[in-house]
Amino acid sequence: MERARPLRGNPKPTRSTAAAVRKSLGRNLTHGMLDRLGREIVTGRYDQLPFPTEAALTAQYAVSRSVTREAVKMLTAKGLLTARPRLGTTVQPASAWNLFDADVLRWLLERKFSLTLLRQFSELRVAIEPAAAALAARMADAGGRRRIEAGYQRMVAAEAGADDSLEADIAFHIAVLQASGNPFYVQFRDLVETALRTSIRFTNRYRGRSASLPAHQAVRDAIVARNVAGAHEAMESIIREVMGLIDEAQRGAGPRIVTAAGIRAPGTRKRAGLRGP
Fold it and tell me: In order of start, what are the domains of the chain with their CATH numbers?
């Protein structure tokens, strides 16, 4: 692990300040700095401000230049930054960000955004997951079917309070992607998981209950029965229900805001004790 150290030509941070910075970045300074800067970029800190120079970042975070360069390099690879001669490093517009990158998706969810983005997640899901379910019905081997069954049984256990409902639901949907046997569908795992975490939290808070077991059982049963059309229809109905709730929310008064801290549906008050599906 790279240790933070003062650099020549920069003000030497006090020991207490440097220790606080190191602690805030976590055990891995590079990834800690990456996470901090990525979150700041996505949440708009540099919308009206120039991105700091390498020297400024090095001094601010009390790390070596190699740590700073690596973090900036990783942000550039994710499409958040670009380096140009005589212009230095600048923040890229959101249209250039790699939305299939798990970190970028996570940072997006940590800023406020309208239900429009939530619907866009669902539109992507409805284009991917029903087709993956249909392919799973055709191609799933015994191992794939076992993973789907295990995911479903976790949902059953979660309904009884014996498992985490959010993680169980995600495990089921990821198992369907894997059972398709198509590596391209499997590559959507991180994106689908992120979309699920967002939509599941919204639907739980909006309707106050976890995911429908009968709806997911219908997907499982269709895949096990090799019912290609049935698997496609059953999975599509799950996502269409979410899209219907989003439409209902958007028809309410005023914009609806989703945040990492909690997803508030229109006209609802914050309620405690709601489980993630």
Answer: 15-96 (1.10.10.10), 112-258 (1.20.120.530)
